[in-house]
Design a protein that fits this description.
Length: about 400
């Protein structure tokens, strides 16, 4: 079922709106500012330019860490898809018990099968083929099994076998916490939102892990190598990884959607159309939830984030006879944004400003240096806590 017709697509331009089924590769090809782009811009213009479409030598390297991250998100957000999109890398465990992995083992197995162990000047691969000709399974001979396995991969992505097993173990552990898993099962995953920043006119994009009628969630994996208290570890992750910017940016896009400022684009199901409409009819601000999975520990956590503070006097139906709908309307209008949320909005605004200023200074045909390449260091550049020590 189709929603509103889209304008003709060019290499990198699509109209603003909500896309439920946009392929990841297409999303990443769009030349718009994303959360990750703004996190780099908040650090400095050069950090963004180095990996952006403006750098003709930029290499989008598909690292093992990125592949593992995609695999993890796939199984958590779309249970059952892992085996369809990923495969374990070939290793000794792939062949199972009784496999032969080197020339010595192949020679011994040939002799066991009544053949001459090694012919004069014979290469190991030729030995392996002779062993297979005796009826010994090629799938248990390293030199033959690896190429056979490679032919079965197709379009699937390879990840380490231990990671493949760890993902399944983590998912099993997650399912023991239905009060948290619900944030990863409601609504739809990998929802793309394209919009134009109303203050600057810059084209923006976001791809949300999960969106439902009243909120959205994002999955984060983390480690606590410094042994911090868990609450401190999570708050530091938000600060130093700039997750506050991500939450504020995603929330802004969803609020444009909720306010009726988005069109539904591309192919979508009837259920997706219903969700789109339900969000536009939601009277409350969208809920934001971080889901945390600590690597190699049982820690699986949910953190609903307080984006706004509400006046409790208008949060529920009061004794003056105001009905629930009116009470909600008043509560939403009088809600004050939380300090961390304001910081996220401001840092995102700063990032867009850096982009625009760097574009004015350097344009599109030269590398971007910092927007202030010569700067004086003053007391204002240091923490007051450090200065007062």
């Amino acid at each position: 079922m189709d929603a509103d017709d889209t304008t003709p697509e060019t290499d990198f331009i699509l109209p603003d709106g909500v896309y439920f089924n946009m392929p990841a590769a297409q999303y990443h090809s769009l030349r718009r500012l994303s959360n990750s782009a703004m996190q780099k811009l908040d650090k400095g213009a050069a950090y963004f330019w180095k990996d952006s479409w403006l750098n003709p030598d930029a290499v989008d390297e598909d690292t093992e860490a990125r592949r593992i991250g995609r695999a993890y998100h796939t199984e958590v957000l779309e249970p059952g898809l892992l085996e369809k999109l990923f495969m374990p890398e070939f290793d000794a465990l792939t062949m199972g018990k009784g496999a032969v992995t080197n020339a010595t083992e192949i020679t011994a197995k040939l002799e066991e099968m009544g053949e001459k162990g090694k012919l004069k000047s014979e290469k190991v691969l030729d030995q392996a083929k002779r062993l297979a000709a005796t009826g010994f399974p090629a799938s248990k001979i390293l030199h033959l099994a690896a190429p056979l396995y490679a032919k079965t991969v197709g379009d699937k992505t390879l990840i380490p076998r231990n990671t493949f097993d760890d993902i399944h173990s983590d998912i099993d552990a997650m399912e023991q916490h239905p009060d948290i898993v619900k944030y990863l099962r409601m609504g739809y995953s990998e929802v793309t939102i394209l919009w134009t920043d109303e203050k600057t006119g810059e084209k923006m994009k976001a791809r949300l892990d999960r969106v439902w009628e009243t909120g959205f969630s994002d999955l984060k994996t983390f480690t606590n190598t410094l042994g911090k208290r868990l609450s401190q570890c999570l708050s530091d992750a938000i600060k130093y990884n700039r997750y506050h910017m991500q939450m504020a940016t995603y929330w802004t896009a969803l609020e444009i959607w909720r306010a009726g400022g988005m069109h539904l684009r591309g192919e979508c199901t009837a259920e997706q159309i219903e969700l789109f409409k339900a969000i536009t009819e939601n009277p409350r601000k969208m809920e934001c939830v971080w889901i945390w999975q600590e690597k190699k520990t049982p820690n699986f956590l949910a953190s609903p984030m307080e984006t706004h503070k509400y006046d409790v006097r208008t949060h529920r139906v009061n004794d003056a006879g105001i009905d629930e709908a009116k009470s909600i309307e008043i509560a939403e209008k009088t809600a004050m944004p939380s300090s961390w949320f304001v910081r996220g909005l401001n840092d995102a605004r700063h990032a867009i400003g850096v982009y625009q200023l760097a574009m004015e200074i350097y344009g599109t045909d030269q590398p971007w240096n910092d927007i202030n390449p010569v700067r004086k260091i003053t007391d204002d550049d240091f923490s007051s806590f450090w200065l007062d020590e």
